[in-house]
Amino acid sequence: MNINRLKVLVAVTAVVLLAGISARAAEPVVKQVSGEITWVDVKQGKLQLKSDASPNTGEILEYRITKDETRVTNPSDKKFLTVDDLQAGQHAIVEVIEGQENKIVQKIITEPVPVSDFLIALGQLQVVDLTAGTLVLQEKPVIGEDGTIHLSQFVFEPKDIVVLQSPGMQPAQVALGPGDVVKVEYVMINGKRHLRSVVKYAPKTTSSTTTTTTTTTTP
Questions:
Q1: Do the domains 119-214 and 30-110 match in fold?
Q2: What pLDDT digit, counting tens, does each position of 151-176 carry?
Q3: Can you identify the CATH homologous superfamily of domain 30-110?
Q4: Antiparallel, parallel or unpaired: β 71-73 and 107-110
Q5: Which member of 24, 89, 113, 180 has the lowest number of beta carbons within 10 Å of its beta carbon?
Q6: pTM score, two decimals?
């Protein structure tokens, strides 16, 4: 082979290899952040997430979302969802590009509700009567479960109610009222929903997430 042709071939090969290395180096690194959604405001384009990586610190991460640019899917990627389907109390995985966490999130994967000894309901509080021990929730089905938005009634023992403030879980006075976004844990006893706990959610900038725990004696 001609020496000059050999030199050209080697040079071209080197350029191709370097270009391939540079292209791989320039590829964005996508990282996944899993946790519990603590607040979502579609109009403002904000989603707040309590990361599973720091469950004891109470760290809340905030992301930007939009109806048009943020794709929401279930783990099998077979269900068409939107950011309107997301709600506080839902577990999810947020995919972000490393170093570009302040940009609009492109993909959110919803996760199944963690296994628990109690049933879970999410939604907006409509009525709470601490004297009678009753609570009415406008319940929105958790992603992955069938159903429509409806009203659900729960009962609890007023004298046994205990209020805890997260993340330190110290006793605190927390008021529950109509319009609050909550997650409730409950058990079914004789056809009634008996509350075990209520988690009240609020945006990070205005209030901390709070937990209200009730202990109910089985009839």
A1: yes
A2: 999 998 877 765 544 443 444 556 78
A3: Copper binding periplasmic protein CusF (2.40.50.320)
A4: parallel
A5: 24
A6: 0.75
- Bridge partners (DSSP) of residue 34 are 93
Cis geometry, peptide bond prior to residue 167 (ω within 30 degrees of 0): yes
Output the average pLDDT for the chain.
Answer: 78
Q: Which amino acid is present at 170?
A: Q
Q: Which of 10, 78, 39 is nearest to 202 (CA)?
A: 39
Residues 6+ apart with CB under 8 A from 3: none
Burial of 74 per CB tally in 10 Å (0-12, 13-18, 19+): middle
Give the distance, in angstroms, between the CA of residue 151 and the centroid of all CA atoms in the same chain.
22
Show the tokens assigned to 2: 């001609």
Residue-range domain boundaries for the chain: 30-110, 119-214
Task: Report the run of H or E that residue 148 belongs to, with start and end.
Answer: none
The domain at 119-214 falls in which architecture? Answer: Beta Barrel (2.40)
The pLDDT tens digits for 57-110 are 667 899 999 999 999 988 877 777 899 999 998 999 999 888 877 889 999 999
Residue 108, classified by CB atoms within 10 Å of its CB into exposed (0-12), middle (13-18) or buried (19+), is buried
Tokens in use for 97?
């590009």
CB-CB contact of 67 with 42 (8 Å)? yes
